[in-house]
Design a protein that fits this description.
Layout lengths: L1 H9 L1 H17 L4 H12 L6 H17 L9 H20 L3 H20 L7 H17 L6 H26 L8
Length: 183
Amino acid sequence: MQTAAQKKVENIAEYVLYMYHVEDTIRKFLFDIPLLMEKYVKLQLPDASFLGQYENWYSSIAHELQQTGKETSGHISEVDEVMLELVYLHQTLLTVVNDTKYQELVDRSLVYMEEFRKKAEMPKSQDVELLLHAMHMKLQLKIRGKEITQETEEAFDAMRIQLAYLSREFHKMKSGNWETNQN
């Protein structure tokens, strides 16, 4: 909860990835919030006084996922809204602003994204969604202790750099300090 709020302010891509992880965790615990609190959240909380707030937060996310039929996949509306904003910003940087630096990053990651699009079986996904999905997959591989080849690491790195640039521009835009002619 506090981590999500901090990430949302500091790095929007990390926020989305964190929320993907939260949603996945709720699903892994089969929406059993008391069990999730006992076996997962309590172990990570430095101060038990926040337990009630965290339980409410996880419960509200679980409730929304269930109410919207996203028990197996999909995201809460707040994450979807951020994703939509990132997609619009991505398109704006490419078509309205004509941000040459961003276009270079897109060009550099394009071949990797197309390959990942096929492997992940996400043929109709927006580029931003694909970038975030790739970074989420990388985190999952690391958590599971899976080895990542040098070639795959290069692909992830190109996508990570593009996503980092997009995230930086997102925060500039949200803060009101976005100058579209100075990138």
